[in-house]
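Give me structure tokens for this 387-residue protein.
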Amino acid sequence: MAHVIIGVTGGVAAYKSGEIVRLFVKAGDDVTPLLTKGAERFIGTRTLEALARRPAPDDLYPHLADADLLLIAPLSANTLAKLATGIADNVLTQLALAFPGPIVAAPAMNTRMWEHAATQHNVELLVGRGVRLVGPAVGELAEGEVGAGRMSEPSEIVDVCRSVLGRSVDDEWRGRSVLVTAGGTREALDSVRYFGNRSSGRMGYAVAAEAARRGATVTVIAANVSLPPPPGVEVVEVASAAELAEETFARERADLIVMAAAVADYRPSSPGQQKKKKDDAAWTVTLERTEDVLMELGRRRRPGQVLVGFAADEGEPGLAAAREKRQRKNVNLIAFNDVSRNDVGFDVDENELVLIGPEGETHVRKRSKEDCAVAILDCVAPLLAPS
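Here you go.
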């Protein structure tokens, strides 16, 4: 049984909070509802108290010590901004600022509000601090529009909370050393231009954050990543494939290595030392191979060490190539993502993976990269040598 505090903010989606409370209570959990004044315009405090079978707290702080999780559902754009900037002007935002345990939140708002640069910046800040966001989903909104901003369904939100509650610091991961590469390398063409790729580093950072949350000691080799660093993680910044290789091989003794970075396969053989001036002549560039870091790690892999690679490829032929890649490069697990699609993979918040391992394949349906990271480490866990 867990003690869950459910914070409810103002918005039409507040009506779903009653079902969330009901699902937790049905499972035997102890639920404390906590409503903002805005939420009370959409759902009554007494309704949630009746479903929770306990009153909302009159005094905040006695309820902090024994709460296992804080869930905010729905999370409005206003409260999201307050949490991101540390404003504590009501009982819920005060609790969020003081709460020592895990926080899960389910955003719900108009599509244009969700997509606004200010909201996305606030989302990055919260995720960077370890807040687990669920959704929002794409669907019909209260205004009759269709788009991103609809609160996820109660069952999905409760499932994520169960996942978080079940994965506090785990003795299986405590003290493990984990190395993650993230982002995309850049190969100099001249003093200004470079060859690069669209990898943002979100997937690698999500894996690093999840490993740290499970209790591992985590280092990230970050290639040109502009995201807030995951909490509790050491970040080593690099630019090129050669720099990434050097820093990775310097830490190759890690118990688990996850090569999530998009490392350039080729680089200009003779990069210019100065900016090439524009003229009417064609510019021919000769490329040479970079070192295959994953292949070399597979060759050096020691007994008990787990090595995870990524395969960004296209469609069924790409999936077939990923299967062959796992064998050829002596990798425990390959995560294949289909980059022929624009709704998953590079530089977006969601991904869809096929995890190819020694015991078969697991299809991870489209979901947030944070939830993909959970799936990856769940597949890795049985492969770790006993600590």
